């Protein structure tokens, strides 16, 4: 019982951390005024995903927010923020995310009922590798954008070395690299949550 409670607490902590991070990435600076409301809605959706996924999955599994989904949605909301009027950008982005969520849920449900999961085996390896590489690039750019509170692309990287810019993103990139190395060097489910807790505590202690 105690081990189950600890595991549930760790998974809950990770879900909250990932959900908030993804929401900040999905809603960039021009539409971040709705961030408080969207974080609450995202946490409710994340909790529903965990409960429904755990209850309905045929195998022992736990559904959590995924970075690939966040990147796809962030690409769409960035286009909305650039094209829509400032007063309409936030509600439009929220409607876009809600519509994409409903459509994705329906597609996954239909795919599950028709047992189409085996189709993933026929995806060519270069296609899968390219998709993962593009996802990694967008995640790094999204993380830098969140740290700097502005959109960052590949051609902006030289400007990140300017005076006053390095201290805004280098510590977070350093922490990410340390966590990535630590999780691969040691087989333990506690490394990532403890790393997040220590990083968060260290940030507020530094403030």
| Model regions low in confidence, pLDDT < 50 over at least 5 residues | none
Largest sheet: none
Helix content bin: over 70%
Distance N terminus to C terminus?
38 Å
- Structural category is mainly alpha
Gyration radius from CA atoms, angstroms: 19 Å
Number of strands: 0
Shape by Cα distribution:
globular
Strand content: under 5%
- Note the run of SSEs as H and E: HHHHHHH
Question: What descriptors fit this protein?
Answer:
207 residues; mainly alpha; 7 helices
Question: Mind explaining what this structure looks like?
Answer:
With 207 residues, this protein is mostly helical. It contains 7 helices and no strands. Helix 1 packs across helix 2, helix 1 runs parallel beside helix 3 and helix 3 packs antiparallel against helix 4.
Quick rundown:
The protein has 207 residues and is mostly helical. It has helices at residues 2-26, 35-56, 67-83, 86-113, 125-148, 166-185, 191-206.
